[in-house]
Amino acid sequence: MKLLNIRLKPKFMLVFCSLMLFSVVTVLATSVYVFRQYEEELYRNTSQFLNMSIDSIEQELSAVDKTSAYVVTGDVVQDILRDPGLDFSTREPVYPFGRAYLSLNDLLLNHYGRLPYVLSAAVCVNGKSLGIGDAYAMEAALIEELTLEASKGGGRPVLHESGGRLFYVRSIVSMREMNMRPIGLLALQVDLQRIVSDSLKSRENLNYQPEIVIFSKNGGLLFTSFTEAGEEFRVQPAENGYRVCRLEGRDYFVSYATHSAFGMSYAMYLPFDSVARSLRLLRTMTFVAAVLVMLVNTLFCSKLVSQIIQQFNVLVTKMRLFQAGRYEELDRYRSDNRKDEVGYLNRSFDKMAGDVKRLVEENYLTKIAVQEAQLKSLQNQIDPHFLFNILQTINWKAKTGKQEEISHITEALGKILRYTLYKKETLVPLREELEIVEGYVSIQKYRYGERLSVLIEAPKKWGGAMIPPMALQNLAENSIKHALENMLEPCVIRIGAGESGDELLLFVEDNGPGIDEDTLKKLENPAGADEGIGLINIRKRLSLLLGERYTLRVYNTGRGTRAELLLPKPGDEKWR
């Protein structure tokens, strides 16, 4: 029982520390660390061996490269290839061409004849080759292939493998012209097999014989010491590093190097079958030991965790009962004897459930009282259908009695009432708002007669613009109130629409005496104002529905009052 009263955090810490102590320390510290250190040490040794071999190979290729740089820029090659009197395609004229050939032959023999790893050296022009070794045996297709590879090098030497032979190719450009025009090609057949073999001879005292694979800059296979190089050996390294792989039934430790002055990359395959078997056995034994330790810890921790989970299950059961509204069953799962965090959670939940139950009951009673109040309020309201029926009766009676004015007023009033009662949209098209304004104006004309003149000049193309309902009617009503009723001469009210930059500008203006300055100030600062409520309402609706930039502006023009509504144009992103 004392164990049950331990705080929740130490319980979970005990579980996880037990698992982590035996599994992580045993598995990671003894397996990963040891194996990693062994592989790192093996990589350092093979990397050192590989770097020594690379240095030897690169040194021999550098000797070839230095000699080639001297040859292609020397006067002999430059003079011969730039001589316009020599035709290398037909090898004529015979005597000058013979002299040129002997000069080239002596030059190549003098420089490459003493390099043991150069099998042949040729200068190629117009699909023909001149030189030493197998230079004359070079086919036109091979010359064209080598010329194309050399052009990709951008003036730098390129190593290219073709037909099992490795060629060092370099473009010969005119050194006496500013355009660096290509005038020929230097092609050397390099014995890479011999270079690699000689570089490994100094390591023959090793108790293992590594295999080397060399790749060109573009990923082509330049050399492999494997007798049968399958596709699995053609994985070009992207960076320095190592990996362990199994190829053709043998285990290899592979070390990669990419730091070549000629753009080549190297892979050294080191066979270590016996070591790999020992490592696999050690890994297996370590894994089995780790599994046994984890099983023991799992059995030990399951009893401890199950006691904790049991109380959480009780709490989940009470939550489900609470969600279903079965509050009366919660007392069956009370847990007052526990003193740890789980017991505190259960007691806190019980208290919360009691508080919520009490609030639900109070809210239920409140809702009943509100519904009764709403019912009484509805009973005291006038039924809109009853009002429309009365208007229709008046309209029918007026038409029967040939009272056309009363009939028109009744119809217009019915349309306005329907519009105000049944229009639930927050924004309506301008064309619908204009219809309501026309109906309202027609009623007012029956009252004021010739004293009132209203001109509606809104183009039909703006009919799709959206506007808060009754906004334009309120502006027209405001003009009648402040203009017509305060003047003796006829009042002219203009309602129009036009463009204002990227927005649409609606305006209502009159020729009245204008609005006094105090009223205008109250419109700008509506706090506590009891006048201009309709205009303030329009401004607030515009701000809420369309944003702060769309607003209502009212000002005196000196010839009356003008009210302007700034709205988005039809099709603007605001409506999407």
TrEMBL record:
Record's GO cellular component terms: membrane
Domain Histidine kinase: 471-571
GO molecular-function term, one example from the UniProt record: phosphorelay sensor kinase activity
Keywords of the record: Kinase, Membrane, Transferase, Transmembrane, Transmembrane helix, Two-component regulatory system
Family matches, as Pfam families: HATPase_c, His_kinase
Protein name per its UniProtKB record: Sensor histidine kinase
Regions that span the bilayer: 12-35
Organism expressing this protein natively: Acutalibacter muris
Superkingdom of source: Bacteria
Coiled coil, from the record: none
InterPro entries: Bact_2-comp_sensor_kinase, HATPase_C_sf, HATPase_dom, His_kinase_dom, Sig_transdc_His_kin_internal
